[in-house]
Amino acid sequence: MTTKQKIYENDIELFALNGYHNLGMRDLAKSVGIRASSIYNHYKSKEDILIEIAHELMTELSTYVYPLYKRMDLTPREFFLNLSIETNRFFERPQINKLTKLLIPLEFEIPRLKELLHVEFIQKPRTGFSYYFQTLMRKGQMMEADPMLAAKMYHSFFVYHFYEKFLSNEPDGFLTKYETLFRNHINLFMDYFKIQ
After folding, report:
1. pLDDT, tens digit, for every residue of 139-182?
2. Where does the record place the HTH tetR-type domain (predicted)?
3. Domain-wise residue ranges, the chain
4. Are 85 and 182 in contact (CB under 8 A)?
5. pLDDT tens digit string along 85-103?
6. Does domain 50-192 have CATH number 1.10.10?
């Protein structure tokens, strides 16, 4: 493992245990046994480390979640259920849970992180749903409507529930605990938009 990898891995743990704001670059260097000045050979700032942590989350999303949006072999009900259940399971994986617990509170303070998470958590899923709804409408399997508005309506429930997880007293397992609620939302949405 390189020194940069040690710093990165160690910092995830340190940030999770002590909080991002409670640590300086000197603390981070000391934790891996290097001089404070040496850490700048690997990272320019603590924020750069945080952004790299966010990029790890984005890589995992690209691997495990984004391909689910391309499953055109499923019926709409299967598509929605598969995407919902698998995404919730993804965000409850221990490493992903650790990363999101660290990143979510900081997104409102750090502009680069805010922009990155806005694209990944809001814009990309909304665009994916909009495209899917356009496809259903074109095939006559969904009531005609503004596909982007339908995407916002559908996705807003999941965004709300995702952020509620971090505001609750028991965030671990929060998303998977409410599978029935997610199924009910999918059924209500499908009924409203007459999705076949």
Report:
1. 999 999 999 999 999 999 999 999 999 999 999 999 999 999 99
2. 1-61
3. 3-41, 50-192
4. yes
5. 999 999 999 999 999 999 9
6. no
Instruction: Tell me the whole-structure pTM to 2 decimals.
Output: 0.91
C-alpha 175 chain-centroid distance: 12
Helical H runs in the chain? Answer: 3-18, 25-31, 46-64, 76-92, 94-106, 111-118, 124-138, 147-167, 174-177, 179-192
What's the CATH number for 3-41? 1.10.10
Pairwise CA distance, residues 33 & 72, whole Å: 51
Query: Which tokens is 63 given?
Result: 């691997």
Asked if residue 44 lies in contact with residue 25, where contact means CB atoms within 8 angstroms, the answer is: no
Output the CA torsion 24→25→27→33 (10° steps): 180
The three-class DSSP label of residue 69 is helix
Q: Collect all residues with Cβ–Cβ distance below 8 Å to 72 and sequence separation of at least 6.
A: 135
